[in-house]
Amino acid sequence: MTSTLTIREAKKHDAVQLLSLFEKHAVYEGHSLLSTEQAVSDKLCILKNLSDTPLIILVVVQGSEIKGYMSLLKQFSTWDMDYYLYMDCLYLLPELRGKGVGMLLMQHCKSYAYQHNLQEIQWQTPVENIKAINFYKYLGATPKAKLRFFWE
Fold first, then answer.
1. What is the CATH number of domain 5-139?
2. Residues 69, 58: contact at Cβ < 8 Å?
3. Domain coordinates of the chain in residue numbers?
4. What is the pTM of this model?
5. Measuring CA to CA, how many Å separate 3 from each of 36, 45, 62, 63, 65?
6. Class of residue 123 by CB neighbours under 10 A (exposed 0-12, middle 13-18, buried 19+)
7. For 93-126, what is each residue's pLDDT tens digit?
8. If you placed Cys at 92, which of 23, 39, 96, 112 could pair as Cys (CB 3.0 to 4.6 Å)?
């Protein structure tokens, strides 16, 4: 790699680059984001006001470019009667995959959970994303099968 990678929390000025990565992530998983001009404008507005949401976004920066991100949410489980950290997304551009950057992000995730006294981290990935599944198993994570439903 030509320059050092930095992992930090997203800032307002990251919104355009983040939205581009969100779109790439959606395509990678076989989906697409709403791309009307109004939808893009609305998403950029939300991203520029992240402090108004419960979402934490960590970004991987190389030079002045964001090359990946991880989004996190504190959630509550009625089964466990406790809070846990939910990793909503982890996405890296192809040139960073398999180079230890995912491990660095997961370590940041674990540190965040520890700092906020959250005993568990949960996430999901598509069943066809074999590389991600193998990576998560390598970390020692345990998979639990569920179907995810969408109702508009």
1. 3.40.630.30
2. yes
3. 5-139
4. 0.86
5. 35, 30, 6, 6, 11
6. middle
7. 999 999 999 999 999 999 999 999 999 999 999 8
8. 96
